[in-house]
Amino acid sequence: MTDTVLLTTFQFEVTFSQVSGNGPDTLGDGGFQEVTGLEVEMDVSDYEEGGRNDAVIRRIGRAKFQPLVCKRGMFGPAEGEAESELWQWFQDIVAGVRPVRRYDGTVLVKDQARNTMAAWRFQRAVPMKIVGPQLNAKTGEIAVEELHLAHEGLQLEGTT
Question: How far apart are the C-alpha atoms of 112 and 114, rounded to whole Å?
Answer without folding.
Answer: 5
